[in-house]
Write a structure and sequence with these properties.
Blueprint: H1 2-28, E1 37-43, E2 54-57, E3 60-70, E4 76-82, E5 92-98, E6 105-111, H2 119-130, E7 136-140, H3 144-168, H4 171-233, H5 238-289, H6 293-300, H7 303-324
Parallel strand pairs: 1-7, 2-6, 5-7
Antiparallel strand pairs: 1-4, 2-3, 3-4, 5-6
């Protein structure tokens, strides 16, 4: 019985030692019989990256940060140790990014032609590539805290804009706007009356021009008959030439009369169009004055302004709550 107990105790001790050795090997990331890949990347800054931080490819951990040194021209060189069986992109680039809200950072290996659509990231990669081809080009994404601070600044700007709108648009402004609409409606009504009056005047002028043209035509015909009689009464050719010139003058007078008629008709047509436009404008302004449609309701109802102020206040409160307690709205897991 005693020997059985000793055997059991020895087996437990050996198992504990084996577990301890296996855990140490796993924590040190030692791989027996495998060759690791060593590479270095060049960065302007590394954010919160530390020794032992993860190296990722498509979100899968393939290694860790082994060494961080300061190089020439204020470049930061980061040495990466990766599994020998890992498949890397043909033209790799290193992107440092924050993975959690608790300050965990990692290096993500991506192809140069698959960089994020961010002008700042591309600028840093191009600058690192221009410094030399002996190391991978690298860039650093902003931390989650910086993004939160930027969101706070945006919320402050929105609140400032809302305050300015509140100061600028009040009940007095609404009354002034309504008065402007009324004045515009009265002006359009008067313009419509003026156009109608001018339309009647132009119509009368056109009729008079038609009458004058007909009288000129009759006078020319009478003159032509008289000259023909004179030509038949004499054998001289001067009278014939005079009659020919008279015919030409008569034709010109008829053409002038036709042109005047055309101009008067075009003017009457344009005034009719202007009259219709002004009458339509007067109808729209009358609907706004009566409170019909979207503009009419906006000029009479202050509910939209109250709801906008309430929405901005709610958005400000939500952003402040997100800054005080981000874990309430975001959930992150490591591995």
């Amino acid at each position: 019985m005693k020997r059985a107990n000793e055997t059991l105790v020895g087996a437990v001790v050996l198992g504990a030692v084996a577990i301890l050795i296996a855990g140490s090997v796993w924590l040190s990331q030692a791989r027996f019989g495998a060759h690791d890949q060593i590479a270095e990347a060049r960065f302007r800054n590394i954010g919160g990256l530390q020794l032992g931080s993860s190296v990722l490819v498509h979100g899968v951990r393939i290694g860790r940060v082994q060494r961080i040194t300061l190089g020439s021209q204020n470049w930061v060189n980061v040495q990466l140790r990766m599994s020998g069986s890992s498949s890397l992109p043909p033209q790799p680039a290193a992107i440092i990014q924050s993975t959690t809200l608790f300050g965990d950072w990692a290096v993500d290996i991506v192809p140069v032609d698959g960089l994020p659509d961010d002008p700042e990231i591309r600028r840093e990669i191009d600058e690192a590539r221009g410094a030399g081809r002996d190391r991978w080009p690298g860039a650093t994404l902003p931390a989650i805290g910086e993004l939160t601070a930027q969101a706070g600044r945006i919320a402050g700007d929105i609140a400032s804009i809302a305050g300015r709108v509140q100061d600028a648009f009040d009940s007095t402004s609404a009354r002034r706007l309504q008065g402007a609409f009324l004045d515009l409606s009265n002006l359009s009504r008067r313009m419509s009356q003026i156009v109608q009056h001018q339309e009647q005047s132009l119509t009368t002028i056109g009729e008079h021009l038609d009458t004058g043209t007909a009288s000129l035509a009759r006078g020319a015909a009478s003159l032509e008959r008289t000259l023909r009689r004179a030509d038949s009464a004499t054998s001289h050719e001067q009278l014939q030439r005079i009659l020919n010139h008279t015919d030409s003058v008569s034709s010109d007078l008829q053409q002038v009369a036709a042109n005047l008629k055309t101009v008067s008709g075009a003017a009457a047509a344009q005034q009719a169009s202007i009259g219709r436009i002004i009458r339509n404008t007067d109808s729209i302004l009358a609907r706004v004055e009566a409170g019909e449609g979207t503009l009419g309701r906006l000029s009479r109802d202050t509910m939209l302004y109250s709801e906008a102020v309430q929405t901005v206040g709610t958005l400000r409160s939500m952003l402040q709550e997100m800054q005080r307690n981000p874990r309430k709205y975001f959930s992150f897991s490591v591995f």
